[in-house]
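Troubleshooting log. The previous structure file for this entry was overwritten by mistake, so regenerating from the original sequence record. Sequence copied from the archived sheet and checked twice against the printout by T.R.
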Amino acid sequence: MIRSRIHRHRIPAFLIVVFGWTWAWDAIYYAFGLWNTLPVYINTFPRQWGLPIGAVLVVWASDVPLRDWLGRVLQWRFPPWVYLAAVSLPVVVGEVQPALAALGGGSVRYSPPAPLHLLFGFFLLNVFLFGGVEEFGWRGVLQPWFQERLSVLTASLAVGVLWWAWHLPLFLGHPNFTPDPLFLVEYTMFVLGASTVLGALVNVTDGGVIPAVFMHAAINVGSVLDGSGGMLEETLPIALVVGSGAWWFIAAVLVGLYGRSMTPGFTIEPLS
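Regenerated output below.
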């Protein structure tokens, strides 16, 4: 009975689990002030696990055997360039921002938020425990479902809107987020732009989520450079034009090359 209802209303069921789980944890964190008492990189640990939990639940209720779905999303044998692009793209975008902020008389300094070995450890934690696990939900089930009726581009933007809304409670108190209007615009543009690129990536891998997990983890690591004092710093919102804009530029190039499918003939087979 429950299984058949979930299957008939798979997208609402998935979203109820995902948003219910995450926002319940956010409410607990706000109620007990945990945003301020736990380390920044740990205090979001429970919230993203609603995505793989919701994905497993709705796949279990579907006509697709859970083992088959896991075999698809966990496939990892891809050409090295796929992983190289997934990891290097966020790194390049992140380091170009401070370089431009220092262009024309400013300075750039090496200023990682932690020693490199700890950043690598944080990257691995994102792959296995933190932000990367979100991809099993966003790109592992929601993207192929939306693509049953929408193009890759439109489906990716639709996933991006939900991904953005899912993060909203963080603006109420998480130390990495701020309600400043410019930051909100930058973040909105970033999430939607990155979602289109991640949507294209998971189509290139025929539904394999691991490269998207790596890209998500690399995005979360952030920049190791700090730039300031350049002629553009006071006249141009660098994070918006470069950080967010780079993802839209990549998406525009893919659309220009391959149309709204954004990929050279690859698409995820629909989930029944």
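The radius of gyration is 19 Å. Archived copy saved in two places this time.
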